[in-house]
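Data card: per-record layout.
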Amino acid sequence: MAGELDQSLEVWTESQVSTWLRSIGVKEQYIEKLYEEEVNGQILLTLNEDFLKTKICMKSGPAHLIIQKRDELINSKQKSKEKKKPTKKPELEQQSVQSAPTEVESPSRSTHGRDGSKQLKTPKDDCRPRPFDKEGIDFIYVKHRVLQPESGAFNLISPCHEFKSLALAASLDRTRLQAKFAREVLKFAVGCMNIRSNGTIHFGVMDSKEDAGYVHGEIIGIPVTEKDMFVDALDYIERCISSDKEHVRQCVRPPRFIEVMDTESTEKKYVVEVDIVPSMSIVKSKVYAVRLPNFKESANKVEFEKEAILRRVGSKTEPVNDKDLSDFYQRVKDRDAQREEAEKTKFLSAPEMCRDLGRKLTMLMTSGKKFIEKDKWFILVTNKFQPGDLCNIEWLLNLNIFCVFDFDPDSKISGLCSKYLQHRASNMHSLQSYRKSDDMSVKDFEDKLNLFDQISWIFCNGRNDFKETPCDEMTWIKTKMTLLRECVSLICKQILPKGTFQVIFLLTSPVEKPLLHTFREFFFDMEGLEDIICICESQENFQKFQSFAEGSCGTEAVNNSSVVGMKMSHINATLQQVQLFKACTSKQLPVFVKGTCLLETQNEEQMYSLEILTVDHCDETNEDFISEEKENIEKQFYHGGKVTWLNFWLAEHKYVGEVVKRDAYDEVSKLLRDALKGNADETPVNSINIFHHPGSGGSTVARQVLWNNRKDVRCAVVKPSYPASLVAQHAVELREYEEKDPEKCLPVLLLIEDSDKEYLDDLRNELEVAVNTKKIQRSTACFILLSCRRFLDPETKCNESPLQNVSVTHKLSAQERREFACKREALEEQYEPEYILTFVLMSEGFNEDYVIKFVKDLLKGIDHSSDVTRLIRYVAFLNTYVQNSFISQSHCEAFLGLTIHLGRFARHEFEKSLSPQAKLVFLHLRDEKTHIKSIRIIHPVVAEEILQQLLGDQTQSSLAMKLLTEKVLFEHRFGRNEYVSFLKALFTRRSRISKGDEYDSFFSPLIEHVRDKEKSPDKAIELLKEAHERFHRDPLFAQQLARLHYTYEKFEEAKDWAEAAAKQQPKNSYILHTKGQVYKKWFLAKCKAIDNDCVSKTADALGTALKAIECFQECEKAAEADRENVHSSGFFAEVETGCSLLKLISSLDVFADRTNGHAEFRKYLLTDYIPEEVKDAWEPFHGRLKKLHKTMQDALEWISEDLSYFQTDIDADEEKTPERSEEQISHPLTWLAKKSSEYGKYFSEDYSSALQGQTIPDNLTPFQKRMIIYHFGGGNVTSILSKLTGQKDAVHLLQKILSLYPTNPLQTRFTQRDIVNYIMTNIALNCLSSETRTVAPMKTLQALCRQFPPDKRCSPNALFLLTLLFWPEDHEKDLEKENKYETVQSAVEHLEKRYWTKKKDIPQRKRRLYTHFFLGSGNGLDKFVHKKKLERVTKVFSVSEKRMKWFQGEAWKNPEIATMLKLVSGWTEDGVVYLDVRGKKRFSIPPLHAPSVPHSNENIAFYLGFTFRGPVACNIIVKK
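The structure for this 1520-residue chain is written out next.
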């Protein structure tokens, strides 16, 4: 480790910081958190304890330790530096001995870090000088880069160089500075002219090693306020040269000012250079002498030295002394001859060879392949486009561009952006848009900016058409530099993995500093130049970029990555030849009148939530690509890959054989044909569902249906993870695209894959609302939703609803077997069987024995200890347990240690590193949206078998433990969210039949396997504990651990885990429910252990039960406060625990062995009385036990009211909430009736025996009667109404219940709850037996209703009864009707408010409002027809079909229903339904099914339903 950490602290990477933290004993959880937060050496230097405690959630101890040890480390390094100081080595030598980082070397970041802190230890980059004596060169130097050392004459043409720092002189006044400058230039110029050598003198470059911290030749730059000061300084020629002044003027070029770019400062500095060119035509036979100027401070003026003849000697300029003078003159002819020869050679040198720039360009763009990869992303960095180049951008239009960094502020008005937007869609962003907050996930950030779906056009220096004004270079560096850095870092380090993208610098005008900074950021964050290309038409524009880039990576690397001198028109033509698709092809869609219309690319991209299938789909594919790749495309599919449109296209155009059609294809096609016919009974949105075994070809069937219908209807695939509202909006746009009349459009066939029923319902609802808003006739078929879902028992789904559902299984029919056998024969002639594995397995019907033998042969000779085999094991493990799981290729490469720098043309390292077995079983996937590569096993069945055979003696729990501790996989940054979610699902996702699984499980299938198959509860606990630590103590895992512990009656541990979870999420109702379950189970276990005769032992159990009830009440409060989720389990669990507690207390001898039965038990619970036997033992519980009857009654009432609102009986095809509690009540209506009765029994047992005879004892109190009513099932509205569902002795029971109420109810003091139950019992009895005399008259019931409180205290049950009982009858007078309507309308207003409070914003509940009664044709109580009576008419259908028939209005047409119900009159106005009433205000009635409302204002008739939201209109018919 020491070697790794020898470097300066500020250059440490995140990994080196982690290594150091481990060495000082910091806990792994904190190390991982700091690693995630990207704490490197620079950041470590700035940390303080407060940051560690607040942001990293660290305890004080470790936070203090880190800061203390960090400070010690800094001090020790400081001391070691000081010790080394006395032995002063030359700077360059010092640099050569610096220890290099031990990690993979990143490109060095010049002498200074990004933050500007000096990093003296890093070597300084070399750079080359500006091209000699060239006009109009746009060149730049970078501060701290180093020019080659000063040189003498080499071949007279190559210039010699001299450096002058001019650091002190630059601050002098004009006179002094000009004298200094002229002296140095003329001294150097005369020296060069006299030896006939070209030369350049550089000012602002370090000329001495003595300058502290600088090296010889290091570029520093000098401030230049007035350039003319330096130009005018050369006027000294006239005063310093006595003869041939004109010659010196001609040979000394004017000063050049080359800007110095400084990454840490905004001060402008320059290197000032003067070129000396002693052309033979000027200097022949001459020797030049000079009197050098010198400012004399004593005289305060410029004086001239004695005239001297100077010459260059090595790297210095020296005077020719007297003794050498004669020799010097004699050799003038020799020097002239040499110069003449050198000049001739220069002009006679052969012209530069013509390079094949076209080939170079294509090789760079394709990474050495024949075509540009269709899945590769490109990032474009560009500046102002020339108008002439804008007509040659087809190659750009067809590139997969991720984003554009555009430095042209006018780009949207007249530049590249404006031209691009004429053909493609794009989102305009600024650098500020790429600021991601710490609490936002990368996925959410991508969605926010709509990345991957549409190009992100980043205006890097303002927009003149928007409110962001451009700024000059220096202001940009001050204000936007940090934003650019964050933006590039986010893209390269978190969004796009290395190797999935290329950056193109397209330089079309002179380069400015901000663009160079952009190159620097990409170069560092991409760790090199392998994926960076520079394309530049003009050598002049390229020069500055080149001079800057060379310092980072060397001249050769920059030249190899750049294409310079190619016209944009040539680039355009060349690259179109290697693109897979023809540029900007307009695609075609079918239209209503049987022709086609053009779908422009930009319109297609506006509908980004859909993958639109066009009539001529794939026609634009490059023919060379087809002939080259057709076999690979076919092989990938038959090996197990997902079918692509290109597979169908190739088959259709006879390039390959047909894709076999499963029988299900014909079934779906028939259902589709029926749906497209459309008739008056159909809805505008139809559904067809394909349920399929995983990997049985269901998706292929669905896509075949789309492909073969693309010319008759408009087809699209819904992309995953878009909200239903957006998909519906795009689907409507697709339907109406280029059509005039919304009534006359082709239907849209939408394929939705692997989404749950709730999403489909939402989408259907959104589409129906859209159709309704557009006022399209209901009989028009507008949308067909083709849902394709994985299901382990597809056939049962098919039997449930044969009119909608189709199943696809692994089992082949006789016809299918024949077709598959023929196809297999044809394929095996073409390919080796191992290359079409999945098809071979499929043709065998996935026979179990065949799969076992197949995998055994496949794994023969595999090296069990190799990393690749470990990887196969892990992938198979995840694929077995987690649906649709994969591991990103980036993860695999990190796992196999393939993080070395790959060259530009060596991208297949991963495939090469795989064993033969891995090559066969791994299927390479690409994300359809991001194109990021990943792998999975070719088929779930094969994955399961590979796992079994590769495990050998190892258990799955030990493999899971190893997977959890695979740090490289867990910490790898790219694709981490997906990997972590799969790993979480492995340990926490329970099986759900509703989600397509085989059974409902209490834990995840892996944990179930460890418990049941491995018989190892401790292993299961150990696994979840490790996962809990690995996932930073996620409360979800603590909750799982609590459940697992109480399953094994380890209640103490279960309590600790439940409390740990609740402490982290105190408002999570699901976790609070689990906490309650711990105490409930604990209580039940304690009950079993209690002896009846021991009261003291029950105290402990009572405390536990009351604690459970307390937890469930907390759960109820949290659930009520949660506006997003509906969770009622707390109420159910409270009642169950209460019943168990009552059972325990009533069974104790102290209450059971009295002569008067359980009177003592009730006396204790209902009065202040406390028996002596329990007085002390139960002392803490008396108060709470005496409230038990009240809290239980409230909970039962809440459940009853909740069930009154919505259809809550969970049917076979209903899906349960995604995050379901333990012990979900699957038949809540039955449960409520049972529990209400049980609750009543405990408080009424000795009286109900008296009721076996018909007489009622006179001495019963109202409370006792109320409890007997509860026992008989009359204690709440829902229990009473459940007697209408076909209970045998319902009439007898209801009569008994009524007999318990006073004979003259109007003269009795009733509670609101009693009145509601009494009235509802009468209504229910009347529905079952209208002849019975026991039922109270309507007038009495109405009079009782007048006792309800008029304000907020009126319960929803009471309000519901008001809408029923005060509904006017035809024979009543107008005034009476008006008063009644007023009562009803007032009740409806209050009901509506309660409904919105009750109904949270959950799609699941939106369309499930329950209609209890319908308005019938009778009078009095006979006018109420209960829904169950209507449903008997449709009982032959399955639940979902029955619902569909009601939904679509088909069921209403039954003649039996027409005789039962009464049609009422009304009208519609602007989409609102009004009831025809005579009243002060209009009475609007919400429709039960919104799309049934006519679009125009019409007179209508409809049936009236009564719900807990108020009356609703059903079966709306327009009056003729």
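Known properties of this structure: The chain is about 45% helix and 10% strand. The longest helix spans residues 1096-1121.

See the next section for split statistics.
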